[in-house]
Amino acid sequence: MRLTILGCYSATPRTFTNPTSQVLEIQNHLFLIDCGEGTQVQLRKYKVKFSRINHIFISHLHGDHFFGLPGLISTFRLLGREKELHIYGPKGIKEAITLFLKLGDSWTNYPLIFHELESKESELILEDSKVSVRTIPLEHRVYTNGFLFNEKEAPRTLDAEAAHRYGVDRSQFNNIKKGFDAMDKNGKLIPNKKLTHDPPKPKSYAFCSDTVYNETVVPLVQEVDALYHESTFLESEAHLCDRTKHSTAKQSAQIAKLAHVKKLILGHYSTRYKSIDFFKEEAQGVFSNVELADDGKVFDL
Amino acid sequence: MRLTILGCYSATPRTFTNPTSQVLEIQNHLFLIDCGEGTQVQLRKYKVKFSRINHIFISHLHGDHFFGLPGLISTFRLLGREKELHIYGPKGIKEAITLFLKLGDSWTNYPLIFHELESKESELILEDSKVSVRTIPLEHRVYTNGFLFNEKEAPRTLDAEAAHRYGVDRSQFNNIKKGFDAMDKNGKLIPNKKLTHDPPKPKSYAFCSDTVYNETVVPLVQEVDALYHESTFLESEAHLCDRTKHSTAKQSAQIAKLAHVKKLILGHYSTRYKSIDFFKEEAQGVFSNVELADDGKVFDL
Where does the chain bind Zn(2+) 2 (chains A, B) (predicted)? Predict the structure, then answer.
Protein backbone atom coordinates (compact mmCIF):
# COMPACT_ATOMS: atom_id res chain seq x y z
CA MET A 1 0.00 0.00 0.00
CA ARG A 2 1.55 3.26 -1.12
CA LEU A 3 0.31 6.79 -0.57
CA THR A 4 1.54 9.67 -2.75
CA ILE A 5 0.72 13.16 -1.55
CA LEU A 6 0.03 15.45 -4.53
CA GLY A 7 -1.04 18.38 -2.38
CA CYS A 8 -1.69 18.89 1.32
CA TYR A 9 -2.04 22.60 1.97
CA SER A 10 -5.29 24.37 2.70
CA ALA A 11 -7.14 27.16 0.94
CA THR A 12 -5.42 28.11 -2.35
CA PRO A 13 -2.85 26.72 -4.75
CA ARG A 14 0.42 28.65 -4.63
CA THR A 15 3.70 28.50 -6.49
CA PHE A 16 5.18 25.76 -4.33
CA THR A 17 2.21 24.31 -2.45
CA ASN A 18 -0.84 22.53 -3.71
CA PRO A 19 -4.35 22.00 -2.38
CA THR A 20 -5.52 18.57 -1.27
CA SER A 21 -5.07 15.56 -3.49
CA GLN A 22 -3.47 12.18 -2.96
CA VAL A 23 -3.14 8.86 -4.69
CA LEU A 24 -3.52 5.58 -2.80
CA GLU A 25 -2.10 2.50 -4.47
CA ILE A 26 -3.78 -0.48 -2.88
CA GLN A 27 -4.15 -3.99 -4.32
CA ASN A 28 -3.50 -2.80 -7.88
CA HIS A 29 -6.02 0.02 -7.61
CA LEU A 30 -4.91 3.63 -7.95
CA PHE A 31 -7.47 5.63 -5.98
CA LEU A 32 -7.44 9.40 -6.32
CA ILE A 33 -8.59 11.14 -3.14
CA ASP A 34 -9.70 14.76 -3.57
CA CYS A 35 -8.77 16.88 -6.52
CA GLY A 36 -7.85 20.50 -5.83
CA GLU A 37 -6.95 22.87 -8.66
CA GLY A 38 -3.76 21.74 -10.38
CA THR A 39 -4.10 18.05 -9.46
CA GLN A 40 -3.66 16.95 -13.08
CA VAL A 41 -0.34 18.79 -13.24
CA GLN A 42 0.77 17.13 -9.99
CA LEU A 43 -0.22 13.73 -11.41
CA ARG A 44 2.07 14.39 -14.38
CA LYS A 45 4.86 15.71 -12.18
CA TYR A 46 4.87 12.58 -10.03
CA LYS A 47 4.41 10.32 -13.04
CA VAL A 48 1.12 8.78 -11.96
CA LYS A 49 -0.43 6.98 -14.92
CA PHE A 50 -3.75 8.67 -15.68
CA SER A 51 -5.07 5.47 -17.23
CA ARG A 52 -4.70 3.57 -13.96
CA ILE A 53 -7.13 5.88 -12.13
CA ASN A 54 -10.65 4.47 -12.27
CA HIS A 55 -12.06 5.76 -8.98
CA ILE A 56 -12.00 9.28 -7.60
CA PHE A 57 -13.19 10.08 -4.08
CA ILE A 58 -14.13 13.68 -3.25
CA SER A 59 -14.51 14.52 0.44
CA HIS A 60 -16.45 17.77 0.02
CA LEU A 61 -17.16 20.50 -2.48
CA HIS A 62 -14.84 23.24 -1.29
CA GLY A 63 -12.56 24.51 -4.03
CA ASP A 64 -9.31 23.30 -2.50
CA HIS A 65 -10.60 19.71 -2.64
CA PHE A 66 -12.59 19.80 -5.85
CA PHE A 67 -11.78 22.54 -8.39
CA GLY A 68 -9.29 20.36 -10.26
CA LEU A 69 -11.95 17.79 -11.13
CA PRO A 70 -13.58 19.40 -14.23
CA GLY A 71 -10.17 19.79 -15.84
CA LEU A 72 -9.07 16.26 -15.01
CA ILE A 73 -12.28 14.81 -16.45
CA SER A 74 -11.74 16.82 -19.66
CA THR A 75 -8.13 15.72 -19.88
CA PHE A 76 -9.15 12.06 -19.58
CA ARG A 77 -11.21 12.60 -22.73
CA LEU A 78 -8.36 14.28 -24.57
CA LEU A 79 -6.15 11.35 -23.66
CA GLY A 80 -8.61 9.04 -25.41
CA ARG A 81 -9.91 7.30 -22.30
CA GLU A 82 -12.54 4.64 -22.94
CA LYS A 83 -12.77 2.95 -19.53
CA GLU A 84 -15.40 3.80 -16.94
CA LEU A 85 -14.51 6.49 -14.43
CA HIS A 86 -16.29 6.35 -11.05
CA ILE A 87 -16.65 9.51 -9.00
CA TYR A 88 -17.73 9.35 -5.36
CA GLY A 89 -18.68 12.66 -3.79
CA PRO A 90 -21.37 14.76 -2.15
CA LYS A 91 -24.76 15.17 -3.78
CA GLY A 92 -24.52 18.02 -6.28
CA ILE A 93 -21.22 16.93 -7.76
CA LYS A 94 -22.92 15.43 -10.81
CA GLU A 95 -24.87 18.60 -11.56
CA ALA A 96 -21.72 20.72 -11.22
CA ILE A 97 -19.54 18.62 -13.49
CA THR A 98 -22.33 18.10 -16.00
CA LEU A 99 -22.97 21.84 -16.23
CA PHE A 100 -19.29 22.59 -16.83
CA LEU A 101 -19.10 20.01 -19.62
CA LYS A 102 -22.38 21.18 -21.15
CA LEU A 103 -21.33 24.84 -21.23
CA GLY A 104 -18.25 23.86 -23.23
CA ASP A 105 -20.44 21.69 -25.48
CA SER A 106 -18.07 18.97 -24.30
CA TRP A 107 -18.67 15.37 -23.41
CA THR A 108 -16.76 12.30 -22.33
CA ASN A 109 -16.07 9.43 -24.69
CA TYR A 110 -15.94 7.17 -21.65
CA PRO A 111 -18.69 6.31 -19.14
CA LEU A 112 -18.58 8.80 -16.29
CA ILE A 113 -20.41 7.31 -13.34
CA PHE A 114 -21.31 9.40 -10.33
CA HIS A 115 -21.96 7.89 -6.91
CA GLU A 116 -23.52 10.75 -4.99
CA LEU A 117 -23.24 10.59 -1.22
CA GLU A 118 -25.69 12.07 1.24
CA SER A 119 -25.83 9.67 4.19
CA LYS A 120 -24.67 10.91 7.55
CA GLU A 121 -23.82 7.34 8.58
CA SER A 122 -20.71 5.47 7.47
CA GLU A 123 -21.54 3.41 4.40
CA LEU A 124 -19.81 0.90 2.17
CA ILE A 125 -19.34 2.60 -1.20
CA LEU A 126 -16.98 0.26 -3.06
CA GLU A 127 -16.11 -3.39 -2.65
CA ASP A 128 -14.37 -6.02 -4.73
CA SER A 129 -12.54 -9.23 -3.91
CA LYS A 130 -9.47 -7.40 -2.61
CA VAL A 131 -10.53 -4.11 -1.12
CA SER A 132 -13.41 -2.21 0.42
CA VAL A 133 -14.02 1.51 0.83
CA ARG A 134 -16.31 3.05 3.45
CA THR A 135 -17.19 6.66 4.16
CA ILE A 136 -16.18 8.32 7.41
CA PRO A 137 -18.73 11.07 8.12
CA LEU A 138 -16.86 14.22 9.16
CA GLU A 139 -18.02 17.49 10.65
CA HIS A 140 -17.10 20.49 8.50
CA ARG A 141 -18.81 23.62 7.20
CA VAL A 142 -20.39 21.60 4.38
CA TYR A 143 -21.33 17.93 4.01
CA THR A 144 -18.04 16.06 4.15
CA ASN A 145 -16.83 12.47 4.22
CA GLY A 146 -13.48 10.93 4.93
CA PHE A 147 -12.75 7.54 3.40
CA LEU A 148 -11.58 4.27 4.95
CA PHE A 149 -9.71 1.92 2.63
CA ASN A 150 -9.42 -1.69 3.80
CA GLU A 151 -7.55 -4.51 2.13
CA LYS A 152 -9.32 -7.84 2.44
CA GLU A 153 -7.50 -10.80 3.88
CA ALA A 154 -5.78 -12.73 1.08
CA PRO A 155 -6.37 -16.51 0.86
CA ARG A 156 -3.95 -18.78 2.76
CA THR A 157 -1.22 -20.12 0.48
CA LEU A 158 0.09 -23.69 0.31
CA ASP A 159 3.14 -24.48 2.45
CA ALA A 160 4.62 -27.26 0.26
CA GLU A 161 7.45 -27.82 2.70
CA ALA A 162 5.05 -28.39 5.61
CA ALA A 163 2.96 -30.73 3.44
CA HIS A 164 6.08 -32.78 2.70
CA ARG A 165 6.99 -32.81 6.38
CA TYR A 166 3.53 -34.09 7.34
CA GLY A 167 3.70 -36.70 4.59
CA VAL A 168 0.79 -35.26 2.61
CA ASP A 169 0.69 -36.36 -1.04
CA ARG A 170 0.77 -33.76 -3.88
CA SER A 171 -2.57 -35.04 -5.15
CA GLN A 172 -4.18 -33.19 -2.20
CA PHE A 173 -2.49 -29.81 -2.89
CA ASN A 174 -5.40 -28.36 -4.90
CA ASN A 175 -7.83 -29.13 -2.11
CA ILE A 176 -5.48 -27.64 0.49
CA LYS A 177 -5.34 -24.43 -1.59
CA LYS A 178 -9.14 -24.37 -1.53
CA GLY A 179 -9.08 -24.49 2.30
CA PHE A 180 -9.66 -28.17 2.95
CA ASP A 181 -7.82 -30.22 5.56
CA ALA A 182 -5.72 -33.17 4.28
CA MET A 183 -4.67 -36.73 5.28
CA ASP A 184 -1.16 -38.03 5.79
CA LYS A 185 0.03 -41.45 4.57
CA ASN A 186 -1.47 -43.09 7.65
CA GLY A 187 -4.90 -41.52 7.19
CA LYS A 188 -4.39 -39.02 10.00
CA LEU A 189 -6.19 -35.69 9.52
CA ILE A 190 -3.85 -32.67 9.19
CA PRO A 191 -5.65 -29.32 9.66
CA ASN A 192 -5.43 -26.90 6.72
CA LYS A 193 -3.84 -24.25 8.93
CA LYS A 194 -0.76 -26.46 9.44
CA LEU A 195 -0.32 -26.91 5.67
CA THR A 196 -0.67 -23.27 4.63
CA HIS A 197 1.07 -19.94 5.18
CA ASP A 198 -0.69 -17.16 7.06
CA PRO A 199 -1.63 -14.43 4.59
CA PRO A 200 -0.08 -11.00 5.17
CA LYS A 201 -2.14 -8.89 7.56
CA PRO A 202 -4.49 -6.70 5.50
CA LYS A 203 -3.63 -3.01 5.55
CA SER A 204 -5.94 -0.10 6.13
CA TYR A 205 -5.77 3.63 5.48
CA ALA A 206 -8.12 6.35 6.68
CA PHE A 207 -8.34 9.81 5.12
CA CYS A 208 -10.00 12.44 7.36
CA SER A 209 -10.07 15.93 5.88
CA ASP A 210 -11.62 18.46 6.47
CA THR A 211 -13.06 18.16 9.94
CA VAL A 212 -13.37 19.77 13.32
CA TYR A 213 -12.23 17.62 16.28
CA ASN A 214 -14.82 14.87 16.34
CA GLU A 215 -14.52 11.71 18.42
CA THR A 216 -17.26 9.93 16.51
CA VAL A 217 -14.63 9.01 13.91
CA VAL A 218 -12.59 7.10 16.52
CA PRO A 219 -14.43 3.75 16.27
CA LEU A 220 -14.35 3.97 12.46
CA VAL A 221 -10.58 4.40 12.21
CA GLN A 222 -9.69 2.04 15.06
CA GLU A 223 -6.19 0.56 14.66
CA VAL A 224 -5.74 1.57 11.02
CA ASP A 225 -2.20 1.32 9.68
CA ALA A 226 -2.21 4.98 8.76
CA LEU A 227 -4.57 7.82 9.56
CA TYR A 228 -4.30 11.01 7.53
CA HIS A 229 -5.98 13.63 9.68
CA GLU A 230 -6.16 17.28 8.86
CA SER A 231 -4.34 19.72 11.12
CA THR A 232 -5.04 23.11 9.66
CA PHE A 233 -3.94 24.94 12.79
CA LEU A 234 -1.65 24.77 15.78
CA GLU A 235 -3.07 25.07 19.30
CA SER A 236 -2.10 28.76 19.30
CA GLU A 237 -4.88 29.25 16.73
CA ALA A 238 -7.29 26.74 18.31
CA HIS A 239 -9.88 29.51 18.67
CA LEU A 240 -10.27 29.48 14.85
CA CYS A 241 -11.30 25.80 14.78
CA ASP A 242 -14.90 26.22 15.88
CA ARG A 243 -15.79 28.78 13.26
CA THR A 244 -13.83 27.22 10.38
CA LYS A 245 -14.51 23.60 11.45
CA HIS A 246 -10.89 22.56 11.31
CA SER A 247 -8.56 20.78 13.74
CA THR A 248 -5.24 21.48 15.41
CA ALA A 249 -2.25 19.16 15.27
CA LYS A 250 -2.82 18.26 18.92
CA GLN A 251 -6.46 17.38 18.29
CA SER A 252 -5.45 15.14 15.37
CA ALA A 253 -3.03 13.37 17.67
CA GLN A 254 -5.78 12.89 20.25
CA ILE A 255 -7.92 11.12 17.64
CA ALA A 256 -4.92 8.98 16.65
CA LYS A 257 -4.29 8.06 20.28
CA LEU A 258 -7.92 7.24 21.08
CA ALA A 259 -8.13 5.06 17.95
CA HIS A 260 -4.78 3.32 18.59
CA VAL A 261 -3.75 3.88 14.98
CA LYS A 262 -0.28 2.75 13.94
CA LYS A 263 0.77 5.96 12.22
CA LEU A 264 -0.64 9.48 12.07
CA ILE A 265 0.00 11.57 8.95
CA LEU A 266 -0.69 15.28 9.28
CA GLY A 267 -1.72 17.63 6.47
CA HIS A 268 -4.02 20.43 5.27
CA TYR A 269 -1.77 22.99 6.86
CA SER A 270 -2.78 26.62 6.92
CA THR A 271 -0.25 28.58 4.91
CA ARG A 272 0.12 31.10 7.75
CA TYR A 273 2.88 29.03 9.35
CA LYS A 274 6.53 29.44 8.42
CA SER A 275 7.39 25.78 8.99
CA ILE A 276 5.29 22.63 9.09
CA ASP A 277 7.71 21.14 11.64
CA PHE A 278 5.71 22.85 14.38
CA PHE A 279 2.79 20.54 13.55
CA LYS A 280 4.85 17.42 14.16
CA GLU A 281 6.25 18.75 17.42
CA GLU A 282 2.81 19.63 18.72
CA ALA A 283 1.24 16.30 17.75
CA GLN A 284 4.11 14.29 19.24
CA GLY A 285 3.26 15.69 22.63
CA VAL A 286 0.21 13.37 22.49
CA PHE A 287 1.04 10.57 20.05
CA SER A 288 4.50 9.40 19.05
CA ASN A 289 4.33 8.00 15.52
CA VAL A 290 3.58 11.17 13.59
CA GLU A 291 4.68 11.96 10.05
CA LEU A 292 4.17 15.11 8.03
CA ALA A 293 2.55 14.96 4.63
CA ASP A 294 4.17 17.23 2.07
CA ASP A 295 3.60 17.70 -1.66
CA GLY A 296 5.34 14.91 -3.55
CA LYS A 297 6.05 12.79 -0.45
CA VAL A 298 5.47 9.06 -0.75
CA PHE A 299 4.51 6.81 2.17
CA ASP A 300 5.10 3.10 1.78
CA LEU A 301 2.69 1.66 4.30
CA MET B 1 0.64 49.01 -22.72
CA ARG B 2 2.15 45.79 -21.45
CA LEU B 3 1.02 42.24 -22.10
CA THR B 4 2.09 39.38 -19.81
CA ILE B 5 1.45 35.87 -21.06
CA LEU B 6 0.52 33.57 -18.16
CA GLY B 7 -0.29 30.63 -20.39
CA CYS B 8 -0.58 30.12 -24.15
CA TYR B 9 -0.80 26.39 -24.82
CA SER B 10 -3.94 24.56 -25.86
CA ALA B 11 -5.91 21.76 -24.27
CA THR B 12 -4.49 20.82 -20.85
CA PRO B 13 -2.17 22.25 -18.23
CA ARG B 14 1.13 20.37 -18.04
CA THR B 15 4.22 20.58 -15.87
CA PHE B 16 5.85 23.35 -17.88
CA THR B 17 3.04 24.75 -20.03
CA ASN B 18 -0.15 26.47 -19.06
CA PRO B 19 -3.53 26.95 -20.72
CA THR B 20 -4.65 30.36 -21.92
CA SER B 21 -4.46 33.37 -19.68
CA GLN B 22 -2.88 36.77 -20.07
CA VAL B 23 -2.77 40.11 -18.31
CA LEU B 24 -3.02 43.37 -20.25
CA GLU B 25 -1.83 46.49 -18.46
CA ILE B 26 -3.41 49.44 -20.20
CA GLN B 27 -3.98 52.94 -18.81
CA ASN B 28 -3.64 51.76 -15.21
CA HIS B 29 -6.08 48.89 -15.70
CA LEU B 30 -4.93 45.30 -15.25
CA PHE B 31 -7.26 43.26 -17.44
CA LEU B 32 -7.20 39.49 -17.09
CA ILE B 33 -8.01 37.74 -20.36
CA ASP B 34 -9.09 34.09 -20.05
CA CYS B 35 -8.41 31.99 -17.01
CA GLY B 36 -7.36 28.38 -17.61
CA GLU B 37 -6.69 26.03 -14.69
CA GLY B 38 -3.68 27.21 -12.70
CA THR B 39 -4.01 30.89 -13.64
CA GLN B 40 -3.93 32.00 -10.01
CA VAL B 41 -0.61 30.22 -9.53
CA GLN B 42 0.77 31.90 -12.66
CA LEU B 43 -0.41 35.28 -11.35
CA ARG B 44 1.61 34.65 -8.19
CA LYS B 45 4.63 33.39 -10.11
CA TYR B 46 4.79 36.52 -12.25
CA LYS B 47 3.99 38.79 -9.30
CA VAL B 48 0.79 40.26 -10.68
CA LYS B 49 -1.07 42.03 -7.89
CA PHE B 50 -4.40 40.28 -7.43
CA SER B 51 -5.93 43.46 -6.01
CA ARG B 52 -5.31 45.36 -9.25
CA ILE B 53 -7.50 43.01 -11.29
CA ASN B 54 -11.04 44.35 -11.48
CA HIS B 55 -12.10 43.04 -14.88
CA ILE B 56 -11.86 39.52 -16.25
CA PHE B 57 -12.68 38.70 -19.87
CA ILE B 58 -13.50 35.10 -20.77
CA SER B 59 -13.50 34.25 -24.48
CA HIS B 60 -15.41 30.97 -24.24
CA LEU B 61 -16.32 28.21 -21.82
CA HIS B 62 -13.84 25.52 -22.79
CA GLY B 63 -11.80 24.30 -19.85
CA ASP B 64 -8.44 25.57 -21.07
CA HIS B 65 -9.81 29.13 -21.04
CA PHE B 66 -12.09 29.01 -18.03
CA PHE B 67 -11.49 26.27 -15.43
CA GLY B 68 -9.22 28.50 -13.34
CA LEU B 69 -11.99 31.02 -12.72
CA PRO B 70 -13.88 29.39 -9.79
CA GLY B 71 -10.62 29.05 -7.86
CA LEU B 72 -9.51 32.60 -8.59
CA ILE B 73 -12.87 33.99 -7.47
CA SER B 74 -12.59 31.99 -4.21
CA THR B 75 -9.04 33.16 -3.65
CA PHE B 76 -10.09 36.80 -4.06
CA ARG B 77 -12.43 36.22 -1.11
CA LEU B 78 -9.73 34.58 1.00
CA LEU B 79 -7.48 37.56 0.29
CA GLY B 80 -10.15 39.82 1.79
CA ARG B 81 -11.18 41.55 -1.43
CA GLU B 82 -13.91 44.16 -1.05
CA LYS B 83 -13.85 45.86 -4.46
CA GLU B 84 -16.21 44.95 -7.28
CA LEU B 85 -15.05 42.26 -9.70
CA HIS B 86 -16.50 42.38 -13.21
CA ILE B 87 -16.61 39.22 -15.29
CA TYR B 88 -17.35 39.37 -19.02
CA GLY B 89 -18.08 36.04 -20.67
CA PRO B 90 -20.58 33.90 -22.54
CA LYS B 91 -24.09 33.43 -21.23
CA GLY B 92 -24.04 30.58 -18.73
CA ILE B 93 -20.91 31.72 -16.94
CA LYS B 94 -22.91 33.19 -14.07
CA GLU B 95 -24.87 29.99 -13.51
CA ALA B 96 -21.67 27.91 -13.55
CA ILE B 97 -19.74 30.06 -11.09
CA THR B 98 -22.76 30.52 -8.83
CA LEU B 99 -23.35 26.77 -8.68
CA PHE B 100 -19.74 26.08 -7.72
CA LEU B 101 -19.85 28.66 -4.94
CA LYS B 102 -23.24 27.45 -3.72
CA LEU B 103 -22.14 23.80 -3.54
CA GLY B 104 -19.29 24.82 -1.26
CA ASP B 105 -21.70 26.97 0.77
CA SER B 106 -19.28 29.72 -0.19
CA TRP B 107 -19.85 33.31 -1.14
CA THR B 108 -17.91 36.41 -2.04
CA ASN B 109 -17.50 39.32 0.37
CA TYR B 110 -17.12 41.57 -2.64
CA PRO B 111 -19.65 42.38 -5.39
CA LEU B 112 -19.24 39.89 -8.21
CA ILE B 113 -20.80 41.36 -11.33
CA PHE B 114 -21.38 39.25 -14.41
CA HIS B 115 -21.72 40.74 -17.88
CA GLU B 116 -23.04 37.85 -19.92
CA LEU B 117 -22.42 38.02 -23.65
CA GLU B 118 -24.61 36.50 -26.34
CA SER B 119 -24.50 38.90 -29.28
CA LYS B 120 -23.03 37.70 -32.54
CA GLU B 121 -22.13 41.27 -33.47
CA SER B 122 -19.18 43.19 -32.08
CA GLU B 123 -20.32 45.24 -29.10
CA LEU B 124 -18.86 47.77 -26.72
CA ILE B 125 -18.66 46.08 -23.32
CA LEU B 126 -16.54 48.47 -21.25
CA GLU B 127 -15.71 52.13 -21.59
CA ASP B 128 -14.22 54.79 -19.36
CA SER B 129 -12.38 58.03 -20.02
CA LYS B 130 -9.17 56.27 -21.05
CA VAL B 131 -10.01 52.95 -22.60
CA SER B 132 -12.71 51.00 -24.40
CA VAL B 133 -13.21 47.26 -24.86
CA ARG B 134 -15.22 45.68 -27.69
CA THR B 135 -15.96 42.07 -28.45
CA ILE B 136 -14.62 40.41 -31.59
CA PRO B 137 -17.04 37.63 -32.54
CA LEU B 138 -15.02 34.51 -33.40
CA GLU B 139 -15.98 31.23 -34.98
CA HIS B 140 -15.20 28.26 -32.75
CA ARG B 141 -16.98 25.08 -31.60
CA VAL B 142 -18.86 27.08 -28.96
CA TYR B 143 -19.91 30.71 -28.67
CA THR B 144 -16.64 32.65 -28.52
CA ASN B 145 -15.49 36.26 -28.46
CA GLY B 146 -12.12 37.86 -28.87
CA PHE B 147 -11.60 41.26 -27.29
CA LEU B 148 -10.34 44.55 -28.72
CA PHE B 149 -8.74 46.94 -26.25
CA ASN B 150 -8.39 50.55 -27.39
CA GLU B 151 -6.77 53.41 -25.58
CA LYS B 152 -8.56 56.70 -26.06
CA GLU B 153 -6.68 59.69 -27.37
CA ALA B 154 -5.29 61.71 -24.48
CA PRO B 155 -5.97 65.50 -24.37
CA ARG B 156 -3.42 67.75 -26.08
CA THR B 157 -0.91 69.20 -23.61
CA LEU B 158 0.34 72.80 -23.39
CA ASP B 159 3.56 73.57 -25.27
CA ALA B 160 4.82 76.41 -23.04
CA GLU B 161 7.83 77.01 -25.23
CA ALA B 162 5.67 77.50 -28.34
CA ALA B 163 3.39 79.85 -26.39
CA HIS B 164 6.40 81.93 -25.45
CA ARG B 165 7.62 81.93 -29.05
CA TYR B 166 4.21 83.14 -30.31
CA GLY B 167 4.09 85.79 -27.62
CA VAL B 168 1.08 84.34 -25.83
CA ASP B 169 0.67 85.45 -22.22
CA ARG B 170 0.58 82.91 -19.35
CA SER B 171 -2.90 84.15 -18.38
CA GLN B 172 -4.24 82.25 -21.42
CA PHE B 173 -2.58 78.91 -20.53
CA ASN B 174 -5.61 77.47 -18.75
CA ASN B 175 -7.81 78.15 -21.76
CA ILE B 176 -5.23 76.64 -24.10
CA LYS B 177 -5.22 73.49 -21.97
CA LYS B 178 -9.01 73.36 -22.35
CA GLY B 179 -8.60 73.44 -26.15
CA PHE B 180 -9.20 77.11 -26.92
CA ASP B 181 -7.16 79.12 -29.38
CA ALA B 182 -5.22 82.14 -28.00
CA MET B 183 -4.16 85.66 -28.98
CA ASP B 184 -0.63 87.01 -29.25
CA LYS B 185 0.40 90.48 -27.99
CA ASN B 186 -0.85 92.03 -31.25
CA GLY B 187 -4.30 90.44 -31.03
CA LYS B 188 -3.51 87.86 -33.72
CA LEU B 189 -5.29 84.53 -33.31
CA ILE B 190 -2.95 81.57 -32.71
CA PRO B 191 -4.66 78.18 -33.27
CA ASN B 192 -4.65 75.81 -30.30
CA LYS B 193 -2.86 73.17 -32.34
CA LYS B 194 0.23 75.39 -32.60
CA LEU B 195 0.34 75.89 -28.81
CA THR B 196 -0.04 72.27 -27.75
CA HIS B 197 1.78 68.98 -28.08
CA ASP B 198 0.21 66.15 -30.08
CA PRO B 199 -0.87 63.45 -27.61
CA PRO B 200 0.78 60.06 -28.00
CA LYS B 201 -1.00 57.88 -30.53
CA PRO B 202 -3.46 55.64 -28.66
CA LYS B 203 -2.51 51.98 -28.61
CA SER B 204 -4.70 49.03 -29.38
CA TYR B 205 -4.52 45.31 -28.71
CA ALA B 206 -6.70 42.54 -30.13
CA PHE B 207 -7.01 39.07 -28.60
CA CYS B 208 -8.41 36.41 -30.96
CA SER B 209 -8.55 32.93 -29.49
CA ASP B 210 -10.00 30.38 -30.21
CA THR B 211 -11.10 30.63 -33.82
CA VAL B 212 -11.06 29.02 -37.19
CA TYR B 213 -9.69 31.19 -40.05
CA ASN B 214 -12.30 33.90 -40.34
CA GLU B 215 -11.86 37.06 -42.41
CA THR B 216 -14.82 38.80 -40.76
CA VAL B 217 -12.45 39.76 -37.94
CA VAL B 218 -10.21 41.71 -40.34
CA PRO B 219 -12.12 45.03 -40.25
CA LEU B 220 -12.39 44.80 -36.46
CA VAL B 221 -8.66 44.42 -35.86
CA GLN B 222 -7.56 46.81 -38.61
CA GLU B 223 -4.14 48.34 -37.89
CA VAL B 224 -4.01 47.34 -34.23
CA ASP B 225 -0.61 47.65 -32.57
CA ALA B 226 -0.64 44.00 -31.64
CA LEU B 227 -2.86 41.12 -32.66
CA TYR B 228 -2.74 37.94 -30.60
CA HIS B 229 -4.15 35.30 -32.90
CA GLU B 230 -4.34 31.64 -32.10
CA SER B 231 -2.29 29.24 -34.16
CA THR B 232 -3.07 25.83 -32.76
CA PHE B 233 -1.65 24.01 -35.77
CA LEU B 234 0.92 24.23 -38.54
CA GLU B 235 -0.16 23.90 -42.17
CA SER B 236 0.86 20.23 -42.08
CA GLU B 237 -2.14 19.70 -39.77
CA ALA B 238 -4.43 22.17 -41.58
CA HIS B 239 -6.92 19.35 -42.18
CA LEU B 240 -7.68 19.38 -38.41
CA CYS B 241 -8.77 23.04 -38.45
CA ASP B 242 -12.23 22.56 -39.87
CA ARG B 243 -13.33 19.99 -37.35
CA THR B 244 -11.68 21.57 -34.31
CA LYS B 245 -12.31 25.18 -35.43
CA HIS B 246 -8.73 26.27 -34.96
CA SER B 247 -6.21 28.10 -37.17
CA THR B 248 -2.74 27.45 -38.51
CA ALA B 249 0.19 29.83 -38.10
CA LYS B 250 -0.05 30.71 -41.79
CA GLN B 251 -3.75 31.53 -41.51
CA SER B 252 -3.07 33.80 -38.51
CA ALA B 253 -0.46 35.61 -40.57
CA GLN B 254 -2.97 36.03 -43.38
CA ILE B 255 -5.38 37.77 -41.01
CA ALA B 256 -2.52 39.96 -39.74
CA LYS B 257 -1.57 40.89 -43.30
CA LEU B 258 -5.12 41.64 -44.42
CA ALA B 259 -5.68 43.81 -41.34
CA HIS B 260 -2.31 45.61 -41.66
CA VAL B 261 -1.62 45.08 -37.97
CA LYS B 262 1.72 46.25 -36.62
CA LYS B 263 2.67 43.07 -34.80
CA LEU B 264 1.32 39.52 -34.75
CA ILE B 265 1.69 37.45 -31.60
CA LEU B 266 1.10 33.73 -31.99
CA GLY B 267 -0.15 31.38 -29.28
CA HIS B 268 -2.52 28.53 -28.30
CA TYR B 269 -0.08 26.00 -29.67
CA SER B 270 -1.01 22.36 -29.82
CA THR B 271 1.34 20.43 -27.59
CA ARG B 272 2.03 17.93 -30.37
CA TYR B 273 4.89 20.04 -31.72
CA LYS B 274 8.45 19.70 -30.42
CA SER B 275 9.29 23.37 -30.91
CA ILE B 276 7.16 26.48 -31.23
CA ASP B 277 9.78 28.03 -33.53
CA PHE B 278 8.07 26.25 -36.44
CA PHE B 279 5.05 28.53 -35.91
CA LYS B 280 7.12 31.69 -36.33
CA GLU B 281 8.84 30.38 -39.44
CA GLU B 282 5.54 29.43 -41.05
CA ALA B 283 3.85 32.75 -40.26
CA GLN B 284 6.80 34.81 -41.46
CA GLY B 285 6.29 33.38 -44.92
CA VAL B 286 3.22 35.65 -45.07
CA PHE B 287 3.76 38.45 -42.56
CA SER B 288 7.09 39.69 -41.26
CA ASN B 289 6.55 41.08 -37.75
CA VAL B 290 5.69 37.91 -35.88
CA GLU B 291 6.46 37.15 -32.26
CA LEU B 292 5.83 33.99 -30.29
CA ALA B 293 3.88 34.10 -27.05
CA ASP B 294 5.29 31.87 -24.34
CA ASP B 295 4.39 31.40 -20.69
CA GLY B 296 5.89 34.21 -18.65
CA LYS B 297 6.86 36.33 -21.67
CA VAL B 298 6.18 40.06 -21.44
CA PHE B 299 5.46 42.28 -24.44
CA ASP B 300 5.94 46.01 -24.00
CA LEU B 301 3.75 47.40 -26.75
Answer: 64-65, 210, 268
